[in-house]
Amino acid sequence: MTFPIPTAHPFTRGRATWSAVCHELPTIASAFLALSLVLTASPLSAQTKPESKQESPPPAGTKTLRSAADYLPADFARDGSKSYQAELQKAIDEAARDGVPLLFPAATYRIDETGLTLRSGSTLWMQGAKFELDADRRQDGQAFLGRDVSGVRLVGGEIVGHNEAWPVGTNIRGIYLTGKLSDIHISDVRLRDLSSNGIGIFGTEEQPARDVWVTDAVVDHCCNTYVDYLEPKSGPEPGSDRKDQGAICFYHVRDFVVRGCRFENSRTDGTHFYRCRQGQFTDNRVYGAKMGGYFLETCDDVLATGNVIRDNGSRGVTIERSSNRCTLSNCIVAGSGREGVWAPNSMGLVISGNVFDRNGRKAGPRESHTANVCINSDGHHPIHTATTDYLILGNVFYTGAEQQAAIRVDAAVSKQIVIKNNLLRGENDHILVEGQSDGSLILEGNAP
């Protein structure tokens, strides 16, 4: 069954997306769909949606929306009791080949860890669809795989695993994109109980992934397991590596937006961005990760604003290892196991307008990890780049008896650090300066 779509292109991005329409598509008439599409594309609709980047219109002519049900038996099992993975793969292949969006009717689709392979040009509307990897999975894999793809759209749907039943060292992602990647848009998906990243996007240093958008996604209780740093034999489970850490994990991604998402109860880090450039991490929530919350490693020009980062097991925010010109503004960082922000060996860092509340709650005997913000150098950093050109301005700090200080600075290894006009509150409402400064540390207007 196909539905005619007017030439006026409906695929605008924004939070007022097609959730309700796609959920009802399997049971309503195609004429109503066409009317809905026209309304979505209308100037009035565009005025009422949040400002967002618009996609290019399709070529002149008529587009069609194809149903995955066309490839399944008329009485196909909608409860996941039977697998139709080969049929679904054929639907994805042919829809991408023909340049048409593919609609998955509301149902549970059982798949194995080899996953469904995305093609360049794949557009999947999955609202109401659930893709389930059952408890019998034993190999590394993923629900959706894309290699060297561009022009991919994934909208809606749920991906569910059974990570507690899978053997240790079995690493299964929800969405795994790798190789030469561009023009990737993932919106309104739900991912839970996987044993690697919910969303993992891996470019390369030679060919970074470009123009990547992840919006309004929820990733809950995913990633490999990690033994807490206060316990014996701490570290990741055998059989996994650093790329399996992070509910969302980007390696070598440029020009990216992660917006309006929730990353919760990660079994390792809430996020991990490695060697990424020119990105925005805005209006997200990172809650209850076993390890760190927001993690930038060797990243440049990444803006983080409007986020709530709470109750993560290790550091709330880490910006480290030669990260340059990154900002953290208008965020709430609270209840972290170690520091609220740890920022060694970076340059041009701006931390402004945030609220830091009683971070360092479980540092144990490591008192140096209890400050809300710590500026120093990492002795394990292989390059030993300078810690320089930091502006810490206009933040609010709350401390309790367990915090060493509101801010801790190692002046002997930090240069050109300006800490100004911050409000310091609580039982340890002071700035702790260690080491001998060369005179470039400026403390001014900080009010206890």
CATH topology type:
Pectate Lyase C-like
Which homologous superfamily in CATH is the superfamily? Single-stranded right-handed beta-helix, Pectin lyase-like
What is the number of independent domains? 1
Strand line-up across the major sheet: 1-2-4-7-10-13-16-21-24-27-30-33-36-39-42
**How much of the residues is beta strand, in percent?**
35-45%
CATH architecture: 3 Solenoid
What structural class results from the helix and strand content?
mainly beta
Based on CA inertia axes, which overall geometry fits?
Answer: elongated
Per CATH, the class reads Mainly Beta
This entry's quaternary arrangement is single chain
Rounded radius of gyration (Å) = 24 Å
Please mark out the parts with pLDDT under 50 across 5 or more consecutive residues, or reply none. 3-62
Largest sheet, strands/sense/barrel: 15 strands, mixed
Q: Provide the helix percentage.
A: under 10%
Mean pLDDT metric:
88
Number of strands: 42
Query: Could you tell me how far the N terminus lies from the C terminus, measured between alpha carbons in angstroms?
Result: 68 Å
